[in-house]
Amino acid sequence: MYFEEHLAIARERGDQRAEGDTLLNLGLTLDRLGDRAQAINHAQLALQIFDTIQHPKADKVQQHLVDWGAISK
């Protein structure tokens, strides 16, 4: 799968922004495919990274998690 390869490359290079982006995109794709549990897992990992690097996408990821019922706002 493309996302998994990209995730491995981002981690190997230490590119946390790319890692967070890839985790978010993978989560969104998994949700569209009907696997919300895995989508939530990936989004939570993306949120941790974006929070750590203080990236503005943290808000977007958090909103997806709220929409999916994983967290309350």
Q: Would you mind describing this structure in some detail?
A:
The structure is a single chain. By secondary structure, the chain is mainly alpha-helical. It has one domain. The chain is built from four helices and no strands. Helix 1 runs antiparallel to helix 2, helix 2 packs antiparallel against helix 3 and helix 3 runs antiparallel to helix 4. The protein is flat and about 35 Å long. 25% of the residues are buried.
Would you identify the regions where 5 or more consecutive residues have pLDDT less than 50? none
- Total strands: 0
Strand percent estimate? under 5%
Number of domains: 1
End-to-end span in angstroms? 32 Å
Helix content: over 70%
**Arithmetic mean of pLDDT:** 95
Q: Structural class from helices and strands?
A: mainly alpha
Q: Note the quaternary state here.
A: single chain
Rg, Å, rounded: 12 Å
**SSE pattern:** HHHH
Major sheet characteristics: none
In DSSP terms (H or I, runs of 4 or more residues), the helix count works out at 4
The shape is flat
